[in-house]
Amino acid sequence: MDDSYEITHGLAVGVDDRHGDKDGDGFPNLAEYLKNTSASDAGSVPTADRMVGTGETYTTISSALASLTADDQIIVVKPGVYAESVGNTGAGAKRVFIISESVDPNITTLKPASGSTISSSKDLYLRGFTLSSAGGNGVGLTGSGSHGIVQCVLHGHSHGIYSQPASSSARNFVDVIGSIVLNGSGSGIYGATNASTFRLVHTTICGQASYAIYNSTSGGGGSTYTLTNCVMWNNGSSEFSMSGGAVTATYSCIKGSSVYSGTGNIRACY
Length: 270
Hints:
Strand 1, helix 3 and strand 2 form a beta-alpha-beta unit. The strands form 3 sheets. This protein has a 9-stranded parallel beta sheet with strand order 1-2-5-8-11-14-17-20-23, covered by helices on one side. The chain has a 9-stranded parallel beta sheet with strand order 3-6-9-12-15-18-21-24-25, with no helix packed on it. The protein has 2 domains: 47 residues, no CATH class; 221 residues, Single-stranded right-handed beta-helix, Pectin lyase-like (Pectate Lyase C-like, 3 Solenoid), CATH 2.160.20. The protein has 3 helices and 25 strands. It has 270 residues and is mostly beta strands.
């Protein structure tokens, strides 16, 4: 975002807050900037490029995605249960914002019959959904880009968020904000990326059969995970496996014997 826009709308220059929502209107600062609306006025909101739901032209997210002819479009989804696996990959992939019309993720659900719930090879912003397992991953990020998973519940997947770009030179920047990942058969976050950045804020990962966060060396390692006001609790193997990666935590609650020296952390050893 341009500095002039940030100054005009009260955003902090030099702080990466693209996935924040200063005015609390449900649209991230980046979408407000791209659509020339105010990030500091809840009465100034972007117009949806596509609406999805009963009574709309598009009744599935997949059909709305397929209709897009440009990047940086906004798809707003009405409450309901959407039995589909959403793919945003290949030659037709778009940078896209997919936003639930409701602020309550419990009333807008994606539950495919099989496979991963959402996969994307370009920038993806997803807010306000429950993603329910069909045996695959919750969100699969296969390209190099910037992604925001905000106010979502990811339940019962293999890996909640699976980040593995196609090449070791690719990088992912992933914000996970105000979300819950729980009760899956793998890890909450599986990072197989080289020198990528993951920022978790107000996020809980619990009840995964494997780890809360697993950093694989298959993509070269070296990724960083920054946790603020997070809970990592009761995940099967342990909370973290950081081969080639690193965790920094502040004001977080982490189960187990590992002690994190960041400010305000709670050590929960039971």
